[in-house]
Specification:
The complex is a heterodimer of chains A (274) and B (278). Chain A is of the alpha/beta class. Chain A has helices at 45-52, 76-82, 99-110, 114-127, 143-155, 173-188, 223-228, 230-235, 242-252, 263-273; strands spanning 3-13, 20-30, 34-39, 60-65, 68-69, 83-86, 161-165, 192-197, 208-213, 216-221. Chain A is built from ten helices and ten strands. Chain B folds into two domains: 16-131 and 240-268, no CATH class; 145-225, no CATH class. Chain B has a two-stranded antiparallel sheet with strand order 1-2. In chain B, strand 1 (93-97) and strand 2 form a beta hairpin. Classes of the chains: A alpha/beta (274), B mainly alpha (278).
Amino acid sequence: MNTAIKFQNVSFIYENSKTKALKSIDFEIESGQFVAIVGSNGSGKSTLAKLTDGLFVPTEGDVKVFDMDTKDDKTIFDIRKNVGMVFQNPDNQMIATIVEDDIAFGPENLGVPREEIKERIDWALESVGMSDFKRATPFKLSGGQKQRIAIAGVLALKPKIMVLDEATAMLDPGGRREVMNVVADLNKEGMTVIHITHYMEETLNADRIIVMDGGRIVMDGAPKEIFARYKELDAYGLALPTVASIADILIEKGMNIERVMTRDALVEELCRLM
Amino acid sequence: MLSDVTFGQYYPVSSPVHKMDPRVKILLSILFIVAVFFVRTYSGYGVLLILLLLSIIVARVKITAVLKSIKALIFLIVITALLNLLFTKTGNLVWEWWIISITDDGIRLTVMMALRLLFLVMGTSVLTLTTTPIELTDGIESLLTPLKLIRFPVHDLAIIMSIALRFVPTLMEETDKIIMAQKSRGADFESGNIFKRIRALVPVIIPLFVSAFKRAEELSYAMDARCYNASKKRTRYRKMSIHFRDIAASLIYIAFFAGVLTFTYQWFDVGSVWWLVA
């Protein structure tokens, strides 16, 4: 496994600000992993996302993507080609009035030949299950559909890493599920995924969870380890998935069940008792 | 509330005019506008009317859609007509009352100016009814390509135009939301004189601007993340090409343009060439 993204002692201060938005962040993400970064508002998780593809450059320390430094102007577009970013508001990341034109934007910028752009559009739309909407107007689609189009627009760059910067924050539960399914599929096919969110439910399928608070990494580990420390999570303003908290309460009341995360698993556990 | 404002008012049917190269359509529209400015006789307008009707029929656009485009400008047309009618003092007096005097020159000028404005609006609406905004920007970009030689940022201009068009519905929706939010807090947009009403819009415009700037910032991140400006040799997904219908349309327009000039300047006596045809 090679390293996809490496943060080395990274601090970041916004212009016109004195306080550090990020304080000596150090971590590595391996290729192919599904990493969830969680934290409450102002924890610095979105700032961290923008540092991964050079939209922000660290005030101190280095950010490296496949060993390329984000500070280096010569490789910045190679980095951005490899790191696809999806943002929070689907309306603010579409540049065209027709779906296919919007997806073509990235490859056009890279100077990809026209025939290949056509192939990439069809492939990207198929990957997110939106092939029927090639000639649609994004304006008329639902939030989840718009966000899937945004993912397709990023996929057309053929990135190796996908960063979702609170991409589900503005969606209804149905839309969130749509987007998470697409992301899980991409991860199965080898895409490194960094999913930034404050919904703990969306971290269930992650290989690793990084918890941020006040510009620092405060927890880092597999979902089971992190969820076991639910009292600390609570202190950082993060709520456990509903099912996990139900299981916790039941265990506290003396029921002999496993501490599970999903609804189906909890149903099974309870049936086992009867 | 604002959703009935049609912008770009594309009329989605399939027709030879819809399929034409946008560049050719833009150039022919310009030719039409130039022709309208040359016309000084009723017969000249007759020629242009035939051309206009021909274009509308071939474009399969409903005549009512074209007439609708006039509605927005009817105020302007009426005002210019009144000014022309009342302030032309040359020619023979036709009617006089108190300080108002109307001359035959004035009537002629009024009719001519009104016709000119009507034809300008109808002619350009055929373009916007049959061409999507994105085709229009692509066409304009392509036509401006020579300006790249003097380092004019043609491509950036095209991107700015297409993003502006892209955000029209988004910002309209947002305006609606803000108006409703302010109404629910007791803002009053419907009573008082015109100045009061304009003042009432301030609490709508300020939040709209704030959010537009926020959107602009996010959009610029999204564009950077998708490698905007990565390559000098940017490719184009959409390809424009000139077909037989473009050439045919161009020839028809040029023929009519020649006809307009002939009628206007009386280059030769129209009556005397009839024997050539007969």
